Amino acid sequence: MSAPHGRPKERSLPPGGTARSAKGAPIHATGLRLRLLGIDTLQEHVIYMRRDCHVCRAEGFKAQTRLEVSLREQRIIATLNVVDTDLLAPGEAGLSTRAWQALGAAQG
Predict the structure, then answer these.
(1) What whole-number distance in Å separates Cα of residue 89 and Cα of residue 104?
(2) Are 71 and 104 in contact (CB under 8 A)?
(3) What is the pLDDT of residues 28-74, one digit of tens each?
(4) CA 28-78-21 angle, 5° bins
């Protein structure tokens, strides 16, 4: 789904929004803008980050890493897919449609 003018929906993580390795300590993702990429993954929660994302670099995350992602009181475990193109701008993380819905993310 896209916002008006064909722009994907995006949302900044508020204070308290985090990502963490499913086995590790929280990685505070405050400042990453969440974008709905409109990718149908059936029921799987997927988060997309650029390979050069400061969170991926700092934590050494690789593709298929399982991450806990939270937005306000909602939490999901999502599979990381790493992006090497300009699909995401620096400072953005993309979500599959199912992950977006599960987090209760909204445009704005």
Answers:
(1) 22
(2) yes
(3) 445 688 899 999 999 999 999 999 998 888 888 899 999 988 888 89
(4) 45
Whole-number percent of the chain with pLDDT over 90:
50
By the 8 A CB rule, do 52 and 8 touch?
no
Q: Give the mean model confidence (pLDDT) for residues 79-88.
A: 95
Residue 103: CB partners within 8 Å, gap ≥ 6? Answer: 34, 69, 70, 71, 74, 76, 95
List CB contacts of 107: < 8 A, sequence separation 6 or more: 3, 9, 10, 11, 36
- Residue 53's closest CA among 38, 41, 65? 65
